[in-house]
Structure formats: structure tokens, C-alpha cells
Here is the input.
Amino acid sequence: MPSAREALLDSAHSALSTLPWTAVRMVDVAARAGVSRQTLYNEFGSKDGLARALIRRAADDYLAGVEQTLGTGRTRGEGPAELARWTVRAAGADVLVKALLTGVWGEGLPRPGDPPAGRRAERALPTPTELLTLVRDRAVAALEDGPSPRDPGELELSCEIALRLALSYTLVPEPGLSARSRTAADRSHR
Here is the structure.
């Protein structure tokens, strides 16, 4: 059974799939999660706090998928390509991941903001450049000792190019690419 926090984040994410963030009401998020509105405010402090937590979870989920993909790609020797496939797939499946990666926050999305003074202990959300660098560096670290060792500089460049290509497809997808990409990515994760 998910914690109240997870249930609230699930509820807010579900609401965001059908409503713009400005129309998402805290009372509805709490009701859908099966908790009181006071519990929601105790957990997140405000709607902005809920938005930051929702965006943080999207970033953490994307990074967890990166770690899983790097493990899978390392065993097959396809790390950068696998990383690109995962990035396109993750951004296509979650508008918050797409916004985190591209910096393009549509009208209907919550905006990342700085935590209020009382909550400065929260981790800052990464900028797109910081996220790209973090993922690239994790990929290099995970792949440089793989089955066929590569020059670290060359591997860094390969990972950077793969990520930037993935971001270009995220911003301007080819018609029909997402269906083919999902099918190929699903086959490669089996």
C-alpha cells in the first residue's frame, strides 16, 4: 500500500494528465488519494510544494530508469544507444520528464520554483543542462568498465551525442517515431 505522500503524488499526476495545473484543486487531489486536505498541506505545505515534489519525483524516476538502462545496455555493449532510446521513451511517456529535459514548460504544467524559506532543505531541481550532464556522467562511469573498455573521452562524447539526439527527437518527433521507438524499446528491455 502506498504511503500518503505517494498516493497524493499519484493523484496529482493523474489529475495533471487531464487538467492544466492551474485547474488542479488540492481538495480533489486529497480526495482522490483518500486523505484529508490537511494531510496534503502537512506533507507539501502548498500547491507549489506539491508541484516541486511532483517534478522531483519525475526527475528521480527518469534517473532510476537511466540506471536500469545503463545496466542493461552495459551487458549488451549498447550503452549510448540504449540511453537515447530510454530518454525518448521516458520523455514521451511523461510531460514532466520532457519539460525537465528540454526546459520547455507548457502552459498546463506546474513550474519548478524555489522552495520557501522554511523548506530550503529540499534538493533543488536540476536544470536541463545539469540533468544532461548528470546523466552523461553516470553513463560514462557505468560504461567505461563494460565488456569492451573504451577511451573515456570518446565514451563521454558518444553519450553526449546520444543524449542530444534523443532530446532533438523529444522536441521535434518524427511522425510515427514514438510508436516504432516504443516497440523497439519494449523489445530491447525484454
